[in-house]
Amino acid sequence: AFLHSATMVKAGIYLLARLSPVLGGTPEWRWGLTGLGLATMLTGAAMALPQRDLKKVLAYSTVSVLGILTLLLGIGTELAIKSMVVFLVAHALYKASLFMVAGNLDHETGTRELDRLGGLRRLMPWTAAAGLLAGLSKAGAPPMFGFIGKELLYKTKLDLETIAGWLIVAAVLANVLLVASALLTGVKPFIGRLKSTPR
User: Global pTM?
Assistant: First the structure.
């Protein structure tokens, strides 16, 4: 879970961060990464919600976060780079936990389909608690580490002069979708009435 959420998928972000001191500051770098990051952030968040497989929801929301990290590298200010590092660590922590929750659910119930999961908080209290805490961090609820990452993200965008308004609107829209996906993965399987599962 940690390998997938923190290391493997972030190799491209690491490469962009390593190239940033050399290529950062040029208009092509700034507008290219900002534009691609913005498009990826919104597309990944929008594609996460219709998914019914728990791991697909997590995967598409990860794509959205990779867009956010790319966007921050494109902005390239000192605050943007610091925000990128904090958000990268926060994402690695909560996403690894959510992948472990998904694995626990799949192992114990025999399914990852969100429509077939519900009411598991009494049967799996530790997994429910982990899912709730990781989901709250993913949603950016205080005092979680994810809250700090999202606050820095908004502060970075507010510090820009020319396109701050558009970036804030896009970030809020993506965040609404990511909060919904956090509730789907960290809370929904454990609330409501208990549903019949293969195991």
Answer: 0.93
